[in-house]
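To close the chapter, one final illustration. This time we ask the reader to focus less on the individual chains and more on the assembly as a whole: which components sit near each other, and how the overall shape emerges from the parts.
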Amino acid sequence: MLAIRNVAKSFGKNPVLRDISLQIAEGEFLTILGESGSGKTTLLRIIAGFESATSGEILMEGERLDLLPPYRRRVNTVFQHYALFPHLTVEENVNYGLRVAKLPKDEITTRVSEALAMVKMTAFAKSKPAKISGGQQQRIALARALVNRPRLLLLDEPLSALDANLRRQMQVELKSLQREVGISFVFVTHDQEEAMVMSDRIALLRMGELEQVASPREIYSHPATAYTAQFIGHTNLLRGEIKSGVARCNSLSWKVGLPEGPALFSLRPENIRIVSGVGSGSDVNAVTFHAKIQHQAFHGATELLQVVCGDGLTLSVRTATRENRLGDLQLEFSPADAVPVRESPERG
Amino acid sequence: MFSRAYRAAVTLPPLLWVALFLLVPYALLLCYSFWSVSPSQTIVHSWTLDNYRELFRVNVYLQTLFRSMWIAARVMIFSLLLGYPLAYYLSFYAGARKDLFYQLVIIPLWVSYLVRAYAWKTILGSDGVLNTLLQYVHLTKHPLEFLLYSPFAIVLTLTHIYTPFAVLPIYATLEHIPRNLVEASQDLGASPLQTFWRVIFPLSIPGVLAGATFAFVLSLGDFLAPLLLGGPSGIMISNIVVSLFGAAYNWPLGAAISLCMLLLVVSLLFLSEQLEKKWSFR
Amino acid sequence: MSAGRSASRWLPWHAITVFAFLYLPIVTLIVYSFNGSGVGGFPPRNLTLDWYRMLFADDAIWESVLNSLIVALAAMAISLTFGIPAALALDRANFPGKALFRRLVLLPLILPGIITGLSLSMLFHDSHVKLSLLTIVLGHGTALISVATTEVFAGLQKLDRAQEEASLDLGANYWQTFWRVTIPNLRLSIIGAALLIFTLSMDEIAVSFFLIGRDNTLPLEIWGRLRRGITPEINAISTIIFVFSLIAIVSWYRLRMGSEGTGEAAAELIETTS
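The assembled structure is written out below.
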């Protein structure tokens, strides 16, 4: 539905986006994930029309979108700080786009009440934005955008100003709203957990380039680069050598079918298991090793152990919570869980 | 946190000074407006409403007042017409040069009023710069008389003087408009012009009101421009007051007029303030 | 994000036109101060410094300049002495009639100057005080208190209360805290106010008109000359006044810009009626 082709953007001499190509499907919830400075907001603003790309093009359903000014695009935005018009009531905010488009009064009234009902804010129609809470303002911003039935909805970190509980609640609501409405959502955030909860696909942006674009599960279990592996969830990065079909990282080694040379592996903490005795290992190929517990962090349902092996290698291990762990542990992991990843070089 | 002694120490001296040098004089003004002047040019301290009756009985006072208000209204309108787009340009378009342009706006503001009024006098006269220039380029054969010693000259000069006064408050309110509102409006389909009328202008109204009030009130009470440039057809209410305190020696009457002006100004300020509050969305 | 394509075409021209309107008269004045054939007449010819020479030999003018300087400095002292505590009072104290006090202090700035001038002249007349430079000083000082109050009040909003609390906590009393902590923090506001008051006082006519004794201030001296007839000597002194005003206001501006943006300064500059 939306095709971003080789879009690049520089502010003066400063390149913010480099050669971004991305397709967004009909009805998809895509998250553009990245740290501050990654260029994610710039990309969103280019799609919305508030910035123009230095090179490249954007097509919506085959036609050039980037040649249109923002007020002619069938794209609407939910702004980070909501940008509700302070001099208009909630109702007037929501029907703003419809009034500008000079739709008939009855249609406006119907669509506005639908939109307000959808975000559960019908009772506040006559209030002014200054009188409602942040979470409520956010819903109005959403209604104001959706009431115009855009082909694409852009959301610029809309949940970042909310407290944690409200945030989680809104994540669920947004997701179900998207399903209900059926429009493609492009959601920008720096919060990787949020991205994983809500998205059909995640586009991870790093320093102006796309690091990886995949579904949350795919990106989590098969990160392409070291950066991806570390940014999304926790991981252990094992650095080693592959020689004659064997990967060697410090004192750990296992068989791999990969070419010779230096290698980097991502091993998720939850994939390292504690061996409690004979016969607990279901994987005969598992790599076993000893380690001492250095630190134990309680995370509620799980705990994160920091262990150090005999050769000085430190690893994070996530297990179910248990009190009174002994200092010495026998641990194992399956070679399949050691995912090879590319290096993530510094970009200038 | 601040002790009673501290608060008394910072409050009392200014309070006393202001009471002595502002409150008492204004009170005196009030009193004088109810007194009268005897034929032998002394002030008679008996209470009377004669002065106020005089104001309404003799046409010239009301006429002059209305003329002054009409001049002030024109100055206000022109200042806004000149000032608003300039403030808008400064706020939304000037970018890196905003600082420089801002200074360029406030500099004329603080350059001597007298200097600027005098400048116009030299420009508008029949032998002045403008007339001789027009004749030099053969656009006119004879000097244009209406340029000087007319209400036109007063309106022109006062617009020149009070346009910066109009620009500043409008600029201040425009600066306070979050730019994401402009983007939101365009995102929702409004063209730049629609965005201006539906979003930017309504939010800038408090600034417009403040600028309009300044321009109007300050022009209304002006006495210098009429004296320098107004001629006989450009006499304003303040000139009458000045002459009543000078050659025409009638302090009580002058006080009465002044008091009316004071009341007028205070009501206008009050009105403006109420309107500003109504249109303020912060 | 600028707001329009068609607007962006005529707005710059409008801006240039308005700036031209604001500056051409002054530029004309300056140009003609060097014009040999006098004040009017286009085009200017005979470049000359004669008018400046005449000006520098004109004792009466320089006497009035001296008077104006004395008045301005004295007025500055009065305005600051009463304006600073007034700002503190408005910021920190609650007393009956506070709202009235606030409006009263700000009134002379928006009220036509002649009303303040003639009210004060009535006061002096009835108390049998002779009009002189002193009465002008009292007039200016009183009228300009609002400038000091407004600037200092704005500066107080930015002052971190915690600093004064820390001073008290460490054993300094209110008087010491005032001089060691409060005033130094208000330095910029005070200097800015002083500059403004000085500039306004030097140019003041309306209030001075009614309070003048034998000694003229510069504006009133010029005014007197104007009544008698225009000479380019006045262009010369006007040019000099312009140059000094320029220096004063640019200095004031740079002082303020150290701590905030143009929007804030604009808002404070016109906050006399709110």
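Chain C has one domain: 57-269. The radius of gyration of chain C is 22 Å. With these observations in hand, you are ready for the problems at the end of the chapter.
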